[in-house]
Design a protein that fits this description.
With 287 residues, this protein is α+β, with helices and mostly antiparallel strands. The chain folds into three domains: 17-65; 72-182, 2-Layer Sandwich (Uridine Diphospho-n-acetylenolpyruvylglucosamine Reductase, domain 3); 187-281, Enolase-like, domain 1. It contains eleven helices and 14 strands. The termini are far apart. 36% of the residues are buried.
Length: 287
């Protein structure tokens, strides 16, 4: 036994010393939703890579709902201009899925670049988001794509954006079952992790009513992801426009983004360079 510094008390060194708990294994999403409504304090288990870490940090579930048997949460569908990703997709399954690579190949490329082999075949996209750990990269990638999270819980079904989710706990216990990316307006998506763990940058360029909407998310091993936005009212982006947009967006990086690995001034400069490179890497952008 050992003492957890965060105040959780004495902890067992491995998950094998857990006290008895109730294990539920639903086979459908409806069954899982009913179980979760009836037992809102239950612990949800997907890939379990984070759950094992949580157990070692003091988590001791009384009821565990394993989602691994729900095949419908491993699907990928394109419906009415939206890409639906099941929350149980592992990083390997999602990045290699034919629909992902047909509809949004740059998402497949970015997704395939993260994590170790062991994690890629076990960890799920839903677990990656719900863990809220700064070093995890899917919040950066999917945040730039303005992904909507689709939840169910005691108050029914609802959606929220990743930025909204990251900045506040849902009011009620919630089961994340799908992640939804709008694809029809997307012109460009890029992800750069060449400077990880110091800085990662994901950028999406979309058609807007007049011109383009740019959304970027900057990640770090040590700080929460930061959302950057810009709009340009132009039918076509020139090289000068792209340089100005990169500078404007990098300047939005908040002061708290600096840490012992790099000052905020350094990070703003790095982000500007990476954004400009990403904007210049795509085809000539015209609406």
């Amino acid at each position: 036994m050992r003492q957890q510094l965060g105040g959780a008390g004495l902890l067992a060194p491995t998950q094998s010393a857990l006290p008895p708990f109730r294990l539920c294994r639903p086979r459908t999403l409806d069954e899982a939703q009913r179980l979760f409504v009836d037992t809102p304090d239950a612990t949800l288990a997907a890939g379990c890579t984070d759950l094992v870490a949580a157990v070692r940090e003091g988590c001791s579930p009384s009821t565990l709902i394993s989602l691994r048997g729900i095949d419908e949460l491993r699907t990928v569908e394109q419906r009415a201009g939206e890409l639906y990703l099941g929350a149980l997709l592992t990083h390997h399954e999602g990045s290699q899925h034919p629909t992902v690579n047909r509809v949004l190949p740059m998402l497949g490329a970015a997704w395939s670049s993260i994590a170790t082999v062991r994690i890629r075949f076990r960890a799920t996209v839903g677990g990656n988001i719900m863990a809220r750990r700064h070093r995890y990269e899917m919040a950066v990638i999917l945040g730039a794509l303005e992904t909507q999270l689709q939840f169910s819980g005691p108050r029914g079904e609802w959606r929220c954006g990743l930025d909204e989710f990251a900045h506040g706990q849902p009011a009620d216990p919630a089961l994340l079952h799908h992640l939804v990316v709008e694809t029809e307006s997307l012109h460009l998506f890029r992800y750069d992790r060449s400077l990880r763990p110091v800085t990662t940058v994901a950028l999406a360029v979309r058609s807007a009513e007049r011109g383009f909407r740019l959304t970027a998310v900057v990640g770090s091993e040590y700080r929460p992801p930061a959302l950057l936005r810009a709009d340009i009212a132009a039918a076509r982006m020139t090289a000068s426009d792209r340089a100005d947009l990169a500078h404007f967006m990098a300047a939005q990086l908040p002061d708290w983004a600096g840490d012992y690995a790099g000052s905020v001034a350094y990070r703003r400069r790095v982000v500007e360079v990476l954004l400009r490179r990403q904007l210049n890497s795509g085809p000539e952008t015209s609406s």
